[in-house]
């Protein structure tokens, strides 16, 4: 079943008389439980695509369907609500809130709703990420890799259908990187969560089902992975 | 979360709420200062606003007030008013049996309705003895039981009168009072009327003028009620001006909060972007930011009120001479107003930064 179905996405930026197509007609499909990586040189539009898939940004042209629902022209309010329900983000610079502990950071997306068992769930997510002994540490007391794992735990707290990760292993040694990727694979396989990871790291490609190459805002050759 | 954010930027939050604290203190203590000023002034004025003094108009060759005049005054005065006719005479008086000086003595029928005794008792009816004012008693060391000589006859002091209001024409401090029955004169030199309020006194004074000065300007009527009212209105204006000045300082405080909140939204741009990205609606972000502003305002306000109470105690100690006078309704009003002003200022100045933070596009905020 397709969770994402995007057709002919164009994102056009106008800066000082010049126009720049960060995305120049991209088709992108994603099945439930699929683990896909996006590769491409810097400035090729990877983050832009991820933002549009994650309803953070709107395409200039093209259509995007999420779970069969057309979300192309939705209001900010509706996009925000949908984001909260179906999407988890792992940002390029993790962006944890410095005042909050690891557990609280994981809780943040649902902090205003306070569903029962929130803290328990946040703890168990962190434990799964191997951070059982760092639950009450502040971000400035964590290493880069640990912060990254807190960020991943945060992206999973709302039980999303899609996790969008920008450079999830960029700050990790290959050992920790594998641990994270194992976890992603497990989430994709067991929980049927679709995962899109932007990466420069060839390690990632050992785990993914498919790699999409982006060059100057267009999809290059696509390759099915063996995994 | 708001609380955490404030503790993170402790120094800055402290400075911001310091502005509010100062603003609140300025408003509250200037307000209280005005109140204390007014209070100490009215305390000095005492009841003179309620008093009317009727005296014969010597310019028209009227030298005394008659029984009829007194009855007329009683008739036009309100039923609750005190009407006290007084006689005057200059007598040779000796306080120490050696030196004799000429002293104005007053004849009063019932001094108990005008004065209180500081020492001794004012007998009712007042038939014998003498009452002396506080200054005379101190000067000549007189106490109940002492004797003085009036026109060569010995009179016993019954009581020393309590100090009167400084500006009152009834002020007994330098007077010697004798029973009216000891005066041969039939007429009165003055009639005092004490009403229950300044406005009543004003009406009564007019009525007395109408009735006694009907055909001839027989009497002078002195009445301070309207003057006292005017003075009190002046004080109200002074107070308003003082508080207005203080409000400017609160305005400055508001701008400093605006600045703090703006800086914090710039600094926390990315965090706010994350919040938006993980599904916080604009109004959620708005709420969180406004909570911070409110918290700043409330904390600053509470601190300000506490400090102003201290200031108020000091102010009242020095102006009224009674620190506890700070616990008066008018002061509570100023404290309350200053507090709510502080909170409102901080919310209002938090509004724009909060709105700015909430309406930024998360993509913009999160781009590297
Ligand atoms: N708001 C914007 N205004 C103008 N140009 C933009 C804007 N956002 C992105 N771009 C441009 O769009 C192009 C794609 O940017 P994007 O961030 O998607 O690159 P990327 O593939 O994620 O690069 P990297 O690997 O360095 O993160 C870049 O050339 C960038 O300069
Ligand atoms: Mg990028």
From TrEMBL, chain A:
InterPro entries hit by this protein: AAA+_ATPase (IPR003593), ABC_transporter-like_ATP-bd (IPR003439), ABC_transporter-like_CS (IPR017871), ABC_transpr_LolD-like (IPR015854), MacB-like_ATP-bd (IPR017911), P-loop_NTPase (IPR027417)
Top-rank lineage group of the source organism: Archaea
GO CC field: membrane protein complex; plasma membrane
Any Pfam family the entry gives: ABC_tran
ABC transporter domain span: 4-227
Keywords of the record: ATP-binding, Nucleotide-binding, Transport
GO MF annotation: an example: ATP binding
Protein name: ABC transporter ATP-binding protein
Organism: Haloarcula salina
């Amino acid at each position: 079943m397709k969770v994402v179905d995007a057709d002919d996405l164009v994102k056009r930026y106008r800066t000082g008389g010049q126009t720049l197509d960060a995305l120049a007609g991209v088709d992108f499909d994603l099945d439930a439980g699929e683990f896909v990586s996006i590769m491409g040189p810097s400035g090729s539009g990877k983050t832009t695509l991820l933002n549009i898939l994650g309803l953070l940004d709107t395409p200039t042209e093209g259509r995007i369907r999420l779970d069969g629902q057309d979300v192309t022209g939705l209001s900010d309010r509706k996009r925000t609500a949908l984001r909260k329900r179906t999407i988890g983000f792992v940002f390029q610079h993790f962006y944890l809130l410095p005042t909050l502990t690891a557990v609280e950071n994981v809780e943040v997306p649902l902090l205003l709703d306070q569903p029962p068992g929130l803290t328990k769930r946040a703890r168990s997510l962190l434990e799964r990420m191997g951070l059982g002994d760092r639950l009450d540490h502040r971000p400035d007391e964590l290493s880069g890799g640990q912060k990254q794992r807190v960020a991943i735990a945060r992206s999973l707290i709302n039980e999303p259908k899609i996790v969008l990760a920008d450079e999830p292993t960029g700050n990790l040694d290959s050992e920790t990187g594998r641990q994270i990727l194992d976890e992603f694979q497990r989430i994709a396989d067991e929980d049927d969560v679709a995962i899109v990871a932007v990466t420069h790291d060839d390690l990632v490609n050992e785990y993914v089902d498919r790699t999409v190459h982006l060059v100057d805002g267009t999809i290059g050759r696509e390759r099915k992975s063996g995994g | 979360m708001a609380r955490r954010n404030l503790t993170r930027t402790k120094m800055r939050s402290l400075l911001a709420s310091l502005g509010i604290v100062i603003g609140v203190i300025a408003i509250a203590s200037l307000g209280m200062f005005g109140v204390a000023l007014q209070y100490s002034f009215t305390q000095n004025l005492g009841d003179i606003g309620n008093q009317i003094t009727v005296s014969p108009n010597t310019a028209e060759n009227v030298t005394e007030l008659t029984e009829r005049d007194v009855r007329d005054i009683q008739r036009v005065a309100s039923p609750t008013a005190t009407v006290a006719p007084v006689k005057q005479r200059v007598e040779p008086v000796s306080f120490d049996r050696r030196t004799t000086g000429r002293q104005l003595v007053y004849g009063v029928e019932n001094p108990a309705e005008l004065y209180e005794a500081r020492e001794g008792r004012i007998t009712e009816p007042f038939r014998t003895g003498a009452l002396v004012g506080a200054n005379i008693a101190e000067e000549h060391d007189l106490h109940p039981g002492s004797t003085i000589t009036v026109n060569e006859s010995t009179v016993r002091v019954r009581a020393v009168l309590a100090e009167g209001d400084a500006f009152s024409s009834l002020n007994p401090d330098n007077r010697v009072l004798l029973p009216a029955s000891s005066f041969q004169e039939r007429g009165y030199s003055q009639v005092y009327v004490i009403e229950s309020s300044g406005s009543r006194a004003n009406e009564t004074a007019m009525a007395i003028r109408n009735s006694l000065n009907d055909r001839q300007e027989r009497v002078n009527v002195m009445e301070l009620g309207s003057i006292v009212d005017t003075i009190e209105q002046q004080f109200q204006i002074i107070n308003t001006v003082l508080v207005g000045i203080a409000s400017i300082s609160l305005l400055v405080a508001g701008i400093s909060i605006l600045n703090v909140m703006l800086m914090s939204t710039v600094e926390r741009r990315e965090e706010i972007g994350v919040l938006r990205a993980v599904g916080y609606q604009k109004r959620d972000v708005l709420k969180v930011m406004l909570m911070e502003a409110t918290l700043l305002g409330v904390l600053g306000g509470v601190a300000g009120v506490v400090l102003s109470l201290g200031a108020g105690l000091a102010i009242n100690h020095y102006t009224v001479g009674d620190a506890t006078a700070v616990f008066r309704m008018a002061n509570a009003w100023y404290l309350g107003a200053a507090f709510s002003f502080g909170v409102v200022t901080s919310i209002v100045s938090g509004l724009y930064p909060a709105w700015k933070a909430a309406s930024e596009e998360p993509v913009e905020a999160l781009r590297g």
